[in-house]
Amino acid sequence: MARHFILCIGYLLASMVYVLAQNECSKIPPELEKASKDCCQPPKLKEGNAQNKCAKIDNIFCLLECVFNETQIIQNGQVNTANLKARFDVELQPDPEYIPIAMNAVQTCYTFVTQKMKNKDEKVGGCSVLPSLVSECTDTQIFVNCPANKWKSNQLCDSAKAYLKKCPVLNFPMNN
Ligand SMILES: *[C@@H]1O[C@H](CO)[C@@H](O)[C@H](O)[C@H]1NC(C)=O
């Protein structure tokens, strides 16, 4: 699941437009397009478990909905922290300093996205956009809260971080 949080960025423009409609965040600063995702060295993920039944789904919204269903990280309208931690403990085991960062990111993002959507979910291709938005946001939150020793500080990276701090749900471009 961490894999989906970390790697899905870049596929979600359609859903972003939905949440970002008319606000300050919809003006993407040009520096952001040039900043690279490896400003924050991504966590190493444990390999394996790739045989899960979600892997074959093409539609990104359905793929992430499937992952959320399978992992049961959202239950009764809130994040199930025990299920979430169980997942991250395994998947982020090669890079455990990311575990608390990723935990906080998911919780913050779930709250943020449900508030933005005012609890009315939207479907694309028959699937909820919520899991995709939470994943996208989680990715930017991990970036924003990157451990200092994994952060490459320079003007582009720092301004990308400042923008994403303000605008946590956004299609962050991948230039590498
Ligand atoms: C996820 O679970 C919901 C509720 O049980 C179900 O309606 C939906 O089809 C499931 N989504 C996927 C992609 O399996």
Automatic annotation (TrEMBL):
Coiled coil region boundaries: none
Ranges where the OBP47-like domain occurs: 46-163
A Pfam family matched in the record: OBP47_like
InterPro entries xref list: OBP47-like_dom, Odorant-binding_protein, PBP_GOBP_sf
Keywords: Secreted, Signal
Compartment list: Secreted
One Gene Ontology term, aspect cellular component: extracellular region
Molecular function (Gene Ontology), one example: odorant binding
Signal sequence region: 1-21
Highest taxon listed in the record's lineage: Eukaryota
PANTHER family: GH25962P-RELATED (PTHR21066:SF15), ODORANT-BINDING PROTEIN 59A-RELATED (PTHR21066)
Family membership: Belongs to the PBP/GOBP family.
Identification of the protein by name: OBP47-like domain-containing protein
